[in-house]
Amino acid sequence: PFPAGGTTDILARQLANTLQKQWGQTVIVDNKGGASGTIFSEQLTHMPADGYTLMLTATHHVINPGLYKNLKYNTRTDFTPLAMVAAVPNVLVVNPGFAPKSVTELITYAKANPGKVNFGSSGNGGANHLSGELFKLLAGVDMVHIPYKGAAPALNDLLGGQIPVMFDSVPGVLPHIQGGKLRALGVTSLKRSPALPDVPTIDEAGVKGFEATAWFGLYAPPRMDPALRDKLASDVLKALQSPQIRTDFAAKGAEPGTMTQAEFAAFVDTELTKWLKVIADANVTVN
């Protein structure tokens, strides 16, 4: 439910290519963007659960219910979760001119300077913004969110030193970390990123329970026959284990999903509860 060219679109096309070979039939990727994915999400809830229309969407799916009060669907009950397609860890990065050199030092600095440390994001209510809000809540610090219109202008200001701190995707900032233009303090997943093996997780750096990974999931319309649901889920899991997908996803800094259908359904439920709480606690609103 997003425009062409973004990570969701790229992952969808790579998965579609593999499924096409596996199934011996054409798999079409159709981009239907708008309103942070909510427009097509609503349309999917009214479609037949025959396996011919599926939706690949991002973390927004579990964030939107906390941001938009008038959604015409129930995220918990109006979809059939099939598979976690990929996870992309984010990373907490700072401008090298900023004093803190670790997560602990950042927390100490922010506590000594309440309301004076700014962190940028690609926009209000996005996954990177909420990573920052979760960090504030769990670390007990008062940092100020500066929303930008997209990740690129935020990153430019971070590189230029106009803002000191940002959460961004590993693929988005990796070249700048490797080039010494940004300092990575911690990754947002519960295990270290293969792309940044020397960078600790924020959880191991002392902010216990911190996890804020961007993930991409595949859903079907509601009330799908369990046999069809399980067949689709296992076919997708098989595709995700193919060497081609592993190579393609790794180039994007993405790790293919390995969850069973039941595990993914439980994960979606947990994520929904987590982000609803973060949004409410941080009083996040979108215009």
- Approximate shape: globular
Q: Which architecture name of the largest domain does CATH use? A: 3-Layer(aba) Sandwich
CATH superfamily of the largest domain: Bordetella uptake gene, domain 1
Count of beta strands: 9
Would you write up a description of this structure?
This protein has 287 residues and is an alpha+beta fold. It folds into two domains: 7-88 and 213-282, D-Maltodextrin-Binding Protein, domain 2, CATH 3.40.190.150; 90-187, 3-Layer(aba) Sandwich (D-Maltodextrin-Binding Protein, domain 2), CATH 3.40.190. It is 42% helix and 16% strand. It is built from ten helices and nine strands. It has helices at 7-23, 38-44, 60-67, 103-112, 127-139, 151-160, 170-178, 226-240, 243-251, 261-282; strands at 55-58, 80-88, 90-94, 117-121, 143-147, 165-169, 183-187, 214-220, 255-256. The strands form two sheets. A five-stranded mixed β-sheet has the order 5-4-6-3-7, sandwiched between helices. Strands 1-8-2-9 form a four-stranded antiparallel β-sheet, with helices on both faces. The longest helix is centred in the C-terminal third of the chain and has 22 residues, at 261-282. The protein is globular. The mean pLDDT is 95.
